[in-house]
Amino acid sequence: MSAIRLLVLGAVRQHGRAHGYQVRNDLEFWGAHEWSNAKPGSIYHALKQMAKQDLLRAHEVAPSTVGGPPRTEYELTDKGSEEFFRMLRESLTAYDERLDVLSAAVGFIVYLPRAEAVELLKERIQGIEDWRSSVTEYYTPEAGPESLGHIGEIMSLWVASADFGAEWTRGLIERIERGAYTFDGEGEVFRAVLAEGVENPYATGEVHAEDER
């Protein structure tokens, strides 16, 4: 699973139509460049690739402000919308995905109905618990990592990570079931996007050749 694909599809979806710099600006506003591979080159590459794959529809809308080719805006196709929700659901349930993928999914979780989000997270917990049970058939955490030599430290790390992952997920489920956040079908879903022309206080300032496109 690719965090950048989910992030870019979700960012475009939040705007309806967005050009590349808007997508980059939003992802930097969310701090995604710190916890994922959402760097400018990766973002612009993902936009072009997904347009070729018919996940995004590209529109040339206006000349570039620096005199280059027309600026391109993107919107999700029906296929792109299906891919976005497929990746979102899979990322929320997969217990063995990288943290950046889970982070991207949590950022868009409110685009699902509340009940579905809870069920997907419960499925995630079940996957974690099943994995932990398979590991502890031959590694007993209570005996300490020394029981397997220094390699036991690896098992200790993974079991501790699983325990934390399950605990965190249960906490999220509890908050959602208690009524936290606005989910799909309940009203206006919160969108952490910057309006056109609003300065991004978290922008990296890194200049990329495609920023004006």
Structure characterization notes:
- By secondary structure, this protein is mainly alpha-helical.
- 53% of the residues lie in helices and 9% in strands.
- Strands 1-3-2 form a three-stranded antiparallel beta sheet.
- Helix 1 packs across helix 5, helix 5 crosses helix 6 and helix 7 runs antiparallel to helix 8.
- The model has no long low-confidence stretch (mean pLDDT 86).
Q: Could you state the order of secondary-structure elements as H and E?
A: HEHHHEEHHHEH
Q: How many DSSP helices?
A: 8
Strand content: 5-15%
Strand order of the largest sheet: 1-3-2
Form type: elongated
Number of strands: 4
Describe the main β-sheet briefly. 3 strands, antiparallel
Estimated structural class: mainly alpha
**How far apart are the termini?**
27 Å
Helical content, roughly?
Answer: 40-55%
Question: What is shown here, in short?
Answer:
With 213 residues, this protein is mostly helical. Helices cover 53% and strands 9% of the residues.
Keywords:
213 residues; mainly alpha; three-stranded antiparallel β-sheet; 8 helices; 9% strand
Write the layout of secondary structure elements.
Blueprint: H1 3-15, E1 18-19, H2 20-29, H3 32-35, H4 40-52, E2 56-62, E3 71-76, H5 78-93, H6 99-107, H7 114-135, E4 147-150, H8 152-177
Antiparallel strand pairs: 1-3, 2-3
Helix pairs in contact: 1-4, 1-5, 1-6, 5-6, 7-8
